[in-house]
């Protein structure tokens, strides 16, 4: 763990901004000193002191830096290194729908990086199993290997690498009861890649599902006579992912969700193309093309993103959110969703996961568990 160090500036605590200093010892926050200030003071400070926020938490990461989670080998470590340089201090490595032998191989390769953090990488908290328990009629960019869900299979995969989050289409036979079983076993479950109705969404929430995978994308939309899965989320959800690259979801739709879902949080759904030039990359079994700011399949379907969490923060603030609110949506809400009490907030005793930004919200420093990351 990192030795004793101090970080000065406007420190965002759960109670609001403090102008002062944060002390780190043994990888954790030892103390926070200073006087409370308003966000207006932070934004208009003539001294332009740096802004210190909790490190970003991304629960939906397929790739980055030219590497894809499903590649196995050292891919996940390289992905964590790309994203930490954009402020992501904790993440879930996210799988794709694929034949089970390929998912097993990817999970086996993820085991080591989940056990031990790379000194220059983000903490990989575990796995987000996005497929294969999804609706084959709503694959989005997922390969066509959707299959019925089975608890024995989930346990088998979990034995290879820790699963923290599972995406499921609740309308498929047996999946509602499985949601209850998964929740009882300690897995977080969210609804996604679904053709389900509003009623299916409400039923899934009542059976223990708590979130929605990339809200609006790969799910039935809102109509005033058929509210769909989007309607269920807007009417009943406390949590939902959203991809704020301003390409997957129109800013107006993001605003609707912000008013409806108290703890909506950001994910990147990033692919190997994140941090890379335009060209062709792998996304599971697919070859995807990065061009014009997006990533697409040959038929034009959006296939993940090139978003990073620092840009997500800037996009939210650019839409008019206060820095403190935007920060919660790239860190603390996701931490709460995953049941993490010692990440996603700058408070005494928590892990010293933090980002230091300038007045334009550009990264100056990233610290993970008290250890400085080389941003060069």
TrEMBL record:
Belongs to the metallo-dependent hydrolases superfamily. NagA family. One of its GO terms (molecular function) is N-acetylglucosamine-6-phosphate deacetylase activity. InterPro entries: Amidohydro-rel (IPR006680), GlcNAc_6-P_deAcase (IPR003764), Metal-dep_hydrolase_composite (IPR011059), Metal_Hydrolase (IPR032466). Residues 51-371 form the Amidohydrolase-related domain. Gene3D superfamilies: Metal-dependent hydrolases (3.20.20.140), Urease, subunit C, domain 1 (2.30.40.10). It holds the Pfam family Amidohydro_1. The keyword Nucleotidyltransferase does not apply. CDD domains: NagA (cd00854). Its EC number is 3.5.1.25. NCBIfam families: nagA (TIGR00221). Keywords: Carbohydrate metabolism, Hydrolase, Metal-binding. This is N-acetylglucosamine-6-phosphate deacetylase.
């Amino acid at each position: 763990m990192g030795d004793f160090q101090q970080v000065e500036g406007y420190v965002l605590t759960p109670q609001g901004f403090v102008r002062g200093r944060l002390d780190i010892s043994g990888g954790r926050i030892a103390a926070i000193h200073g006087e409370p200030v308003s966000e207006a003071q932070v934004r208009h400070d003539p001294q332009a002191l740096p802004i210190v926020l909790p490190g970003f938490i991304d629960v939906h990461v397929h790739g980055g830096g030219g590497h894809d989670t499903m590649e196995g080998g050292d891919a996940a470590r390289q992905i964590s290194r790309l994203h930490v340089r954009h402020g992501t201090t904790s993440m879930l490595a996210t799988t794709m729908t694929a034949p089970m032998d390929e998912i097993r191989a990817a999970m086996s390769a993820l085991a080591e990086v989940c056990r031990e953090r790379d000194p220059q990488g983000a903490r990989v908290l575990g796995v987000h199993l996005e497929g294969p328990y999804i609706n084959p009629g709503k694959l989005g960019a997922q390969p066509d290997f959707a299959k019925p869900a089975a608890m024995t299979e989930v346990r088998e995969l979990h034995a290879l690498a820790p699963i923290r989050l599972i995406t499921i289409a609740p309308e498929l036979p047996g999946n509602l009861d499985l949601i209850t079983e998964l929740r009882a076993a300690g897995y977080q479950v969210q609804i996604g890649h679904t053709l389900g109705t509003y009623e299916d969404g409400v039923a899934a929430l009542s059976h223990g599902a708590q979130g929605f995978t990339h809200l609006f994308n790969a799910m039935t939309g809102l109509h005033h006579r058929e509210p769909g899965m989007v309607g269920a989320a807007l009417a009943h959800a406390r949590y939902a992912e959203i991809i704020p690259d301003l390409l997957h979801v129109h800013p107006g739709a993001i605003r609707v969700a912000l008013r409806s879902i108290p703890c909506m949080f950001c994910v990147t759904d990033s692919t190997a193309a994140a941090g890379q030039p335009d060209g062709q990359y792998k996304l599971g079994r697919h070859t995807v093309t990065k061009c014009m700011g997006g990533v697409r399949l040959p038929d034009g379907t959006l296939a993940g993103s090139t978003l990073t969490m620092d840009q997500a923060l800037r996009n939210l603030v650019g839409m008019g959110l206060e820095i403190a609110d935007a920060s919660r949506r790239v860190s603390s809400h996701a931490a709460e969703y995953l049941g993490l009490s010692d990440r996603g907030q700058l408070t005494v005793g928590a892990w010293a996961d933090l980002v230091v930004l300038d007045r334009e919200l550009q990264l100056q420093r990233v610290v993970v568990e008290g250890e400085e990351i080389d941003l060069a």
